[in-house]
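Colleagues,

Please find the record for the three-part complex below.
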Amino acid sequence: MDRSKKYMNPYLAGFLIGLFMIAAYFFSGEGLGASGALKTTVVAATDVVAHDYAKEAEFFKRYVSSPDSVPIKTWLIFEVLGVIAGAILSAAIFGRLGSEIVKPPHITNKTRLIAAASGGLLFGIGSQLGRGCTSGMVMSGMSVLSLSGFIGLIAIFGGGYLIAYFFRKLWI
Amino acid sequence: MGPLFPTNIIGEELNLLLAFFIGIGFGFLLEAAGFTNTRKLAGVFYGYDFVVLKVFFSAAITAAIGIYLLSYYGYMDIKEIFYPQTYWIPTLVGGFIMAFGFIIGGFCPGTSICAAATGKLDAIVFVGGAIIGIFFYAFTYESLWMNLRQSGAMGEVNIAEWIGISQGLFIFLLTVVAAIAFYVVTIIQQRVTSKRDFKL
Amino acid sequence: MKKFEIFIVVVLLVGAVWAFTLDDVKRHVNERLTPCQLIDLTLSADKFITTDELAKRIMNNDPSIVLIDLRRKAEFDLYSLPGAINIPIENLLDEQYKAVLDQKTYTNVFFSNSSDLSAKAWMICTRMGYKNNYILQGGLNYWAETILRPTKPKQTAVNAEFVKYNFRRAASSYFVGTSVVDENKEVKNIAPAPAKGKKKEAAGGGCD
């Protein structure tokens, strides 16, 4: 199955993403993000289940303690809902919709799923510590020439190249 | 004039509606560029597919040029927009943790959300892992992370000012470096894939 | 590389050259205010936060409030507001405090014994283009007078005065530490969380 032909040209896609990034900044003053929406979900869930805990705990109290704030109704949540809709739309148009596990042929499904879960776990922690992920911190940060965006770029991709060799069995 | 929402030109409902439509564009393009395929993403580290680097740099440079020009000609007040504060220590450490996450998991949060939406089971597992990770971070915040997260505070730092060159020059150099990188990775990709077919 | 790809890269390079030929947008310097703007800001009453307002927000655990004590370290160590941080006014422009003063997320409240030092600090910060800084009206003296030791209004006073007094008594017990059960109930009624600065919280932004 040769799917790669149906992918959009990467430079064109990047250029258009850049235009959407400008739009996000111009209309709303926000960068494009993803992990922030996951965090908001976590905060909202904790707030629903254990409001008293969330009100006091150092991590949550920044977001929940004023009584009439609705933590879930944020820009990033709506943006990420759009991302989900957009991804489904594109996958439907290009015929890539459907349940599957993408992996190199020599890797078992189980290995791939365990690796994905551990990777997600690490990314969840790292994105909170680093104040954002690849899109919200690095790409948005680079767009406004923020130093932190470039530090993040070096740490994520530089770090990736440093350790890629040790995890090569997962991919090649 | 801009940004329109922080300067109260548009209301909250419209702002959230725009967030949704901007998100649709972002998600569509990520999927269309192949970011839902974890092997294409990991390819950037092993030299067989550089789509991540190409998309990432063209997007960041387009946005950087656009935002710089908008603010130069007075259409956008850069003081009102989201400007990440620089805390260099946690960003470096967090970034390194994210590097492990990227290599092992094969996604980053944005791409995993796209891929999960299109039905990739590994992406759904990745998103689940990320949520558990954030829960873990949240509940151990005070004991493990709080001091580290607040260390190395530098405020809102512009990289060009920090280096000591003009922003225009920095954008220009970044673009030149990216153009050279685009050329070099194209050659690397040809060499790597000519030795072995990766059948993405 | 394909022709189409080269075209996009050339477009980006042209944009970059365009940006390069412009003068620098001085992100920080440009934000400094003209004397006229400074006068407008100085004359507006928005820069003050009353002791009642502050007491309410502290009691509601408003996370966006940052209390900044401008007095000397010795005075700060002796007594200050709960959770306050100490930035002696001589050190106001030190690099280490820049991240605290020049930001968009929190509401900074300056205070000292009276409003004197805070007004100076506010002026300096405003001149630097820093936002979200406020002055505690009357300073710690007025705080003690209104919140810690409120005086009872005369019997002839209007009802609103008594509501205010009841609130202050409740606040007093909150800050001083004596428990007055009845009036604590009162607090909940008359202290709707002032979710001021909705926009500020929204501007947390990005991925963080």
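Residues 1-83+159-200 of chain B form one domain.

Comments are welcome before we finalize the supplementary table.
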